[in-house]
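Archive entry. Fields below.
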Amino acid sequence: MKLSNPTKIIIALFLLFCLNCHTTMAQDSSAIPTLMAIRYMVPINQVPYLSVNTKKKVGRKFEPVKGISCSVYFNDTSNHNLLGKTVTGVNGEGKVAFPASFKATWDSLTSFKFIAIADAPAGEEPLSSDVTIKKSILTIDTASVDGVKMVTAQLKEKIGNNWVAVKDIEMKLGIKRMLGDLTVGDAETYTADSSGTASAEFKRDAIPGDEKGNLFLVAKIEDNDSYGNLTIEKSVPWGKAVHTQSIFLKRALWSTGNRAPIWLLMIALSIIVGVWSTLFYLIKQMLTIKKLGKLFDENASSSK
Amino acid sequence: MEKIQKFSSEKIIHDLLPKKFGRRGMIWTGSLIIICCIGIVAYIQQLRKGLVVTNMGDYVSWGIYISNFVFFVAISLVGSLITAIFRLANVPWRTPLTRISEIIAVSAITFAALIIIIDMGRPERMFNLFIHGRIQSPIMWDVIVISTYFCTSLLLLYITLLPDIRIMISEREKLGKPFAKLYRWLGSYWKGTEEQEKLRDKSITIICIVIIPVAFCIHTVTSWLFATTYRPGWDSTNFGAYFVSGAFLVGAGGVVVAMWVFRKVYQLEHYITERHFDKMGKILVMLALLYLYFNVNEYLVPAFKMKKDEEEHLVGLFSGEFAHLFWFAIIVGMIIPILIVVFPKGRKPNAMFVAGVMVVVGAWFKRYLIVTPTLLHPFLPKFDAPLKYSHYFPSWQEWAITAGSLAGVLLIITFFARVFPIISIYKTITDHETEQPY
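PREDICTED_STRUCTURE:
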């Protein structure tokens, strides 16, 4: 039997569809490897730490993998270079702080390698990840040029015994707010110029600060291959002073018992007094009835 | 309808004086005491170990106890319905029903107050409500209004009892010694003089006027405990009227059941007549239709909109986990009683008893459905909660305490009927002497 061309095409498409389905299913059912990454973090004026993140592709998105136990080493995986051990939490992150015992080594070096090695998750190979970081320091400052407020930040790398400004590096300059950072100007990121300084004009004059009008300016370098993650912040009196008065001091429905609204007190008390005075009046009536009964008895006994 | 007879005072006194428990009465009372004792044992265990013995948790923090509380509050409304409203409306056939409804009100409100303390877990903390209470809180309003309603109901019961106490003192030879001291202590000062009568009559009228708004308040405030909370099923402006109408229905149902039982046990066929059942039947059907109307409002409108946040709760009631209870409460608690009682034959004592039982049982489950499913479906998503928090079934301690409280209510009514006449002797004599008795 000879098949026509359209039939062949339909059969071919059908087989292709089946194959595709099989491949997709196979991909879903086969073991998708767990991924691990190590990140170097320098939080504001604090000791650096290492963050280990584990994740796995589920469907079309990555989900954190919790419960992965891993060891983090400094420069090599020898036991005496073990920085610490951690287990990833529900967000797939485990942290290892930089121990004080490594300070001397830390001070003597300008470049470090961090290695994370994790136990093999069920049915998988053991995980490992490493990152090489150059020792650096991030600074933030402010300046006023012709009445224009400027925010500047500079990353300096340690080369030999000197700190040298890093050119062309991208960083974020923002204002710390409750739920995240607000950029100081229009751009999301700023690049350091030939002198190694990134600067941005402060364009958020009307922004509310604390009671004295203080704001926290923040400079960040995120996920840089050579320097890791660095953050620095500085307090400046550039915000609008906000004086908040606690609403709990006012008479309100949500206040404490002794600060109930007057209207509520009046209504409640008038109802309570109205009803209970009626009840007391009725009790008084009962006492009068009782008195009348005694009088009746006395009259009856005296008439005898 | 049976023929209405007029009786002599002697016969009325003989028929209506409290009687000793017979064999069945002893078994009934003994059973109630046993159930109460089991409840007390369970409560002692709860006191010793804490609320951990219950199956309540972070989500269902108001379980069967609060359902029971709402039920007791509801059934206690009957005191104001039968006594106050009927008296002010001068309903001539109310006499045999008033005391039954008054004692149901007093006993139910007593246990409503107790069950709140039981639900607190730490009963001594009740004291904090008085020293740190906030008048802004509906819970505080509920405490105030419950205590007020309790005192008002007790006062009403006592004032209406006075002439009967005098009769019982005069009949002490028939009644025997056991309660003679109690009668003398309660009402030896009542001589039935014209002045006393006038004051008593005035007091009853005043108390009947006061008790109606207080009774409406207690049910409205109880409904506000729920309606002032932003939760699916409770976030309603209809709740006050919905609760009051439901309370009238269950109260009327409770009185019908009690009427049938007392009529049967104490052979009161000449006093609680078929006419009374017929009249109560008409009231019952009207109240059931009214409550059904409020239920349609309460469920049909949200179901029509089916807001995403409320969907889980509503679907759970209509076709999910609580569907069997929900449809039982609607069909057995409202629709079938309406279908029974709407026809004259359905307003005969036995049929009315069946309808009354259906209303009361349906009403209890209705209160459970108002409280529990809502708590299981909060607006905010459940996060990191154990699976068992998603379901609620009361523990044996909760069942025992609840059964004990229900038995306690029945026990108060039973003991009251043993000590005092369940139908006012004085008023019945007056009715028979002065006007056409019902």
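CURATOR_NOTE: Residues 9-379+405-434 of chain B form a domain with the Formate dehydrogenase/DMSO reductase fold fold (CATH 1.20.1630.10).
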